[in-house]
Structure formats: structure tokens, C-alpha cells
Model the fold of this input.
Amino acid sequence: MHWVLHKLFLIFVCIIISCGKTSEKRSPRIVSLSPAMTEILFALGAGAQVVGITTFCDYPESTKYVTKVGDFSRPSIERIVGLKPDLVIVNLPEQRYIKASLEKLKINIFISSPKALNDIYQEITDISKFLKKEREADSLINYMQTNIKPINPARKKRIYLELSPRPLITIGHESFLNELVEIAGGENIFCDLDQLYPVVAQEEVIKRNPEIILLLHPEGFKDRTGWQKISAIRNNKVIKDLNQDYLLRPGPRLVEGFEELRKAINE
Done:
């Protein structure tokens, strides 16, 4: 009788160990160095699999309980490796050196570098396959596409969107922000530039005479020589209170960012 009980106990232990291994395979450990991809992972219901993030990854609220591996620009390779991730999400071009370091260590990486809205949707699809969250990804993409639809005003207003005041950095034709501005009913005055985020001269902004100025940096808008003749300045159409996280993180909250853009351009 004791022998039978002992055998049953061993079988039970083997089942527990086997289930543990299966569970481990189904739940890969992920370190996300991209705030946008962190939001995507949680939106897909994979937050429990995120074991490391940067200090810039601050949404949703539950991210405050996840281990931080450093800031966005200089995360710690040692901390990342110490978390024994099955996958590390890196953002290019900013984290090129991290990518190179992880490749030398033979750690799996997922590269996030979306330019257009379709690139964002594709990245959601791609990461969902790794997570086996394809159904959740379809739902998330449908939510975004349903709520980010083109506005067709009678006339598109000329928009200057500023990412940095020193130097002046704006958005070019290849940026998803340019696409959002156009969908929201505006016309980016620098849409003829092929760079994602070109540096431009003040004289060129004055020459192109935007009707609306959108600021996506914390410094606000100070008096600038010659800018008083710009239509947006004369008509008090400088928008400073857009939520930067909504618009600068190519993830689910672009829906809220798009709504803010639509109101800023058309109301």
C-alpha cells in the first residue's frame, strides 16, 4: 500500500513539473525598451509576461510594478541580461547600440521602428504571433482603424508641427505623424521633405506661413524674431496642450492623439 501511494505521489510530482514546463513555454519573458510597444503588450493582455521596461514606460498604471532596466536612451545591458528574457524589444534608430550588444549575446530581439500607421499595425500583428495573441491583435487593430479615419474638410489648413525648439525639428513626409495630420484634416507645410524628422530653418517656417502651429515639446512657445507675421501667430492658433504621449508613442493611444489633432485643426 505504501509503495502504491509512493508511486502515485511520484506521478503527481511529474505532472506538476510537466505543467510548469508547459506553462513556461507558453509565457515567454519579455523586456520592452519601447514605451509604445510596452503599451501594445499590455493592450494585448500580455502584461504579465513583461519582466523589464525602461523608466519611460509609464503606461498603463501597472507598469510601475515592473522592473526598470534604465532609461530609454541608455538602458543597462546587465539588468536586461539578468532578467533572462526570451525576447527584448528595441526601438530603432535610437537603440542601435543596444541591438548590437544583444545580438552579440545571442539574445532574441524584436525591432520596433514604425514609419506609417500600417507599420504600427504590422508590428502589433508580428508581436502577437510570438505571444499567441492573434485574436487580441485583430481586435486592437480594428479599434485603432475604426477610430482613426480621414477627415475631409472643405479646405485643409497649413500645419507646422514642432518636436524641438533647438534645433527646430519638425515632421517630414515619411513620419506617421505626417500621416495623422493629413488624416485629421491638415496639410503639413513640410510634407515635401523625405526625412522622418528634419531640422528646418526659422526663415523657412516663416516663408511657408502655417495657419496652425502644434507644439509637441515641453518648453512652450516663446517670442521669435520675425514670427509675428505668421498667420498662426497673428490669429492665436498656437496649440501647446496636446498630450505628447498620445502622439509620440505609436501605439493604442494614438486614437486619443488623433482626436486631439482633429479638434486642434478643425475647431
Remarks:
- The chain has a mean pLDDT of 91.
- The two ends are 82 Å apart (CA to CA).
- The domain at 27-147 is CATH 3.40.50.1980 (Rossmann fold).
- Residues 153 and 185 are 6 Å apart (CA to CA).
